[in-house]
Amino acid sequence: MMAHVNGWLGRTCKGTWHFALLLLCLCLFNPGAAMSQSCVTSPACKPQFKYEGLNGQVTINNCKTTQTSSACAWANVTLQASNFLACRLEDTGPIALCYYSGVPGGSTETPGCVLSADKKTATCDCYKISKNEPEGATYSYVDINAILNKAVYLQTVKVCGKDGSKCLNGANVVTNPNTRQAPVCNAIRNKTLFPGADVVSDYTPILIPQKGQTSYDCPTSGTSNIYAGCMTAPCRATGRVDSSTGLPLVSCECPTFDGPNQVGNPLIEEVGNCSPDPYVWSSAYKPPTMPTLP
What we know:
This protein is α+β, with helices and mostly antiparallel strands and 294 residues long. The protein has one domain. Helices cover 21% and strands 20% of the residues. It starts with a helix and ends in a 10-residue tail after the last strand.
């Protein structure tokens, strides 16, 4: 077969349109070819965690999503504001906010996040956020580099670009709110990001006025520090309500990553411990400064 293709190319390469036609045909017969070009896999990004009942339906993203030392999706790396894809809560329905999960209680009265025995995942209590619950909640944000569902990641990159700039995002949501939403937003709405999950985790700044925000560098020395990368993790309802916010609590199964990160929960400044075993901080690597958004 390859010999026939090479021979055909040799006879027709005088016309560039023939080459373009061949590429089109190859893509039509192999529609995944173009999308796979945007995925460079790495042994370091082979998932070491499992979601019982979900891994059979969802292929976990093993692409190197950034050119950083923390290249795996569950490292939750953000390089610029456009990486945060904006999804309207009125379209997607509720999401989970795990940004404040870690050591429970304290002055911020935030939810707990407990490491599994093998330290590959963490079970985190997170706030369930819906449109106008709490008041003013309008958008949630998905880090394009941290989409755990590989098929949804590749489709989103195809439409939005690697940096998310071609879709509604944290950099243009105020100035160009009619920009198209990313495919990952549709996956949240259709519950295809993690079939069977009640909600999935992403980000919203809606609780900053109440809970605060910081950027605490972990670890304080070296480069090794386990944290929970909760972006797009699957969550289930608990029936419990958080006493400090009045918001429902959901339980999310977050993969962990070992590397440098910045914790956003101000409680870490009181605790002063990047590795508060058996707890673990929900965190991310190099988050950009996000504007206060509706």
